[in-house]
Every structure is written in structure tokens, then in C-alpha cells.
Amino acid sequence: QVKVLNFMTYGEPAATIKPGSRLNLVLGPNGTGKSSFVCALCIGLGGSTKLLGRADNVKEYIKRGTDRGWVETTLSGGPRQPDIVIRCDMEKTAEGYTTSWRINRVSRTKKEVTELVRSINIQFENLCQFLPQDKVVEFARMNEYELLVATERAVGSTSLYETHQTLIAMRAEVKQKEVTAQAQKQRLDQLKLENQQLERDYKRFNQRWKLLHRVDVMKKKIAWMHVREKQLKAKQLKEELVKADKAVAQANEEAKGDETPARRRRDDADAAKRTANDLQNAIKRKEEEARLAADKLEKDGNAVTELRERLDGLAAASQKQKAEVKQLQDKLTKVEATVESLPPVPDHSAKIQVLQQEMNNIRDQLAHLEAEKGQLADAAHNARIEHGRLAGE
């Protein structure tokens, strides 16, 4: 029940309103207190005056001409539970107004009253449960979703509303996960395309690497074919040197003339000796170049180009040596012709012996030159073995 004193249209003595346990209707002409009863329910149970759509100040609800009033609301405590009596005393002051609250005649704060009212599921802010006259327009503006939520909160326990909110949150989470899954699927498709592109690039790169490796091996084979060619040319040069040695020996045996032809032959022998020395020095230089080229090839297999250039230089030197041997042969031929054309001369055995000694020296130098050529051939052979090892790696 609700009892009011000096509250809006209700004055003294206190008015008591006793609703029944079922549907209750409040009927009457204007000004008889219908809206005052609704306002008393809200304010008497700690509701905000803003929910009523009227005055915001509590003192405006105290009956005019009086300074104080009160609202006492009795609520059922449930089966086998005592009733709950909530009283709100209002008083006008110079600063505005004051209110005091009691629950079952025990002084309480408004916060405690509000918590008690909420615990028994009284919702003054829910227009489906509490609809003041001045809030009807606002109720009519509510959409379907707002009406559903307000209805869920108004009927029964709060579990329906909480379950609905949980479902909404879960649905939002499902949508979010669907969006995330779709984004991840798109990302997966993109990664698959990128992976296919990378696979094609890898195959092309692998094929290119094999071709480059094959080109490198072929370059090395070409270089060592040049080495082999130079070895054959060196062998031919050796044979030519042997022929030159024989020609010099034959010239020595046939050298039977006067002192002037002997001196001429001696000069030719000196020239041949110088030529042999030049050949020996050239072979030494080429041997050193071959050794350096072999060392470079051992350190870096990519130096095949440099080795080829050096081998080309060796070929040029071999050609030069061949030309020099040819010149020596021509000189020997001239010596032979000169000797044959000379008339018989007195015995010059001593001079011939000296000349023979010089020729022997030339022969020794040619033998030394042949040994150095053999060393050069060994170095080229070792370089070829090293090239084969690098090509195998």
C-alpha cells in the first residue's frame, strides 16, 4: 500500500491507497490525484524525479502551503517473509529541500533504499514496467529492439535479459570471427599465389644456376684445351731444338777451314748460345707464369680467364721461340753452306778444340733448357689435374 501526506494534490490527513493482488485501475476526473499517485510510487521508492517528466526538484512535489510531507510505501517481502516499509520524509528549507529515508522504521540512506528496490526487480527507468503520463510519447518512439529489451527486463527474473545480452555478445563475437576467418582465408589465398610465384622463381633460378655452372665448366675445359695445345707446341719446339743441336754438332765436325771461317762459325755459335740463353730465360719466365697461374687456380677456381690469358701469352712466347729456332736453323744452314764452300785449310786442331768446347757448352745449355721445359710440362700437368679436381667439385 501507499500512504501520502502533503504530497502534490494529497493534503491532510494522510491518504492511503491499497492496490489489489491483480490488475488495478486508477480512475477519476482531472485533478483528483491519479498522476500524484504515480509520482508518489517513484519518489517514495527512491526513483529519480527526471523519470517523471515533471519538476526535477523534490520540493515542487510537496503540497503548496506546507513545508513538509512524506510518502510511505509498503512492499510484500514474499512468502513467509515480513513486509518491507519504506518511508521518505521531505522538507522544504531555505537552501532548497532535504529528504530522509527509513526502512522498517530504521534510518537508511537513499543508496541503500535504491539497492533494496533493485533487488526485488523494480525498474522505474524501464518504460515497460513504469510509464508515467508524461513519458508516453517517449515510449511510442521506442523501436522493436528497445521494446524487446525493456520487456525482457520487466518480466520475470533478470536471467532472460542477461541471457539475451550474452547471446548478442556471442553473436557479435561469431560475426567478428567470421570476418577474421574471411580475412585469413583471403590472406591464405594471397600467400598461396605468392608461394606459386616464388616456386616459379626458384625453378628459374635453379635452372639458371645449373646453366651458369655448366658454362663455367666449359670455360675451364676450353682453358685446359689451350694448355694441352701449348704442351704439344712445346713438344714440337723441343724436337726442333734437338734438330738444331744436331745441326750445330754437324757444323762443328765439318768446320775445317782457315781462321776466318772458324771465327765466323764461332760468332755464329755465340749467336746460337745467346739465342739458347734467350730461349732458356723465356722458358723460365713462362714456367714462373705457369706456376703463378696454377697457384691462382688453386686459390680461386674463377681465375680461369686470367689463366687463359697467361696461356695465350705462353702460346705467343712459344711462337716466338719457334721463330727464333727457325732463325737459328737458318743460321746453321748458312754456316754449313759457308763451310762447304771453303777451300781446304791447314790443320787448326787447337782452334777446332776450342770451338768444340764452346759447342759443348752450347749443348749443355740446350740440355739445361730441355730440363726446364720438362719442369714447365710437369707444372702444366699438375695444373690440369687441379682443374679436373675443381671441375669435379
Task: Describe this protein's structure.
The radius of gyration is 64 Å and the shape is rod-shaped. It has helices at 34-44, 110-119, 136-140, 144-154, 159-254, 259-299, 304-341, 349-392; strands spanning 2-5, 15-17, 68-75, 84-92, 97-103, 106-108. By secondary structure, it is of the alpha+beta class. The chain is built from eight helices and six strands; from the N terminus they run ββαββββααααααα. Helix 5 packs parallel to helix 7 (304-341), helix 5 (159-254) packs antiparallel against helix 8 and helix 6 (259-299) runs antiparallel to helix 7 (304-341). The longest helix has 96 residues, at 159-254.
Rounded to an integer in angstroms, the radius of gyration calculated over CA atoms is 64 Å
User: Between the first and last Cα atoms, what is the distance in angstroms?
Assistant: 106 Å
The backbone outline, from C-alpha atoms, is rod-shaped
Main sheet attributes: strand count, strand direction, barrel closure: 6 strands, antiparallel
Q: Name the structural class.
A: alpha+beta
Number of DSSP-assigned strands: 6
Going across the biggest sheet, name each strand in turn.
2-1-3-4-5-6
Number of helices: 8
Give the DSSP E fraction (strand runs of 2 or more residues): 5-15%
